[in-house]
Structures are given as structure tokens and as C-alpha cells.
Amino acid sequence: MAGAHDRIYNQKRSGDDDEDDEPDEAEQRLDETGCKEEHFAVLDCMGDNHRDWRRCQDVVKALKDCMTNHSKAA
Known about the structure:
By secondary structure, the chain is mainly alpha-helical. The protein contains four helices and no strands.
């Protein structure tokens, strides 16, 4: 099963969306923080677990820790 990261990547690569190629605000923030992989891990986990965030606490915590470390470094 393709994860959310793969679906988003493939959509952007295939040009299926009608938006221009500029990253949106959320994508820019993820690029700035360096937490993009953690974000996609949360999306994948949520997709694999029928949107049950309780089953994804380890990856949610990893994203939170990444974002916290970025904000402390800034």
C-alpha cells in the first residue's frame, strides 16, 4: 500500500494538481524545520491505521520532538 508521502510525491510529479509549482505555506514550514520525514511518517501511520491517532503516538511524538528542537535552535 502506498503511503501518504508516496501519494503526495506522485501527485506533484505527475502534475495532477491544478496549482502552480510553488510550495504551500505548510510545505515551506516543513522544509524550514527539517521535519518533513517525520510529518510524512505521521501521514503514513494515520492512513495505515484508519485515522486512529492513538496508534501513531510514537511518530506523533517524533514529529513534536523535531518541531520542538527546531524552535529551540531558532
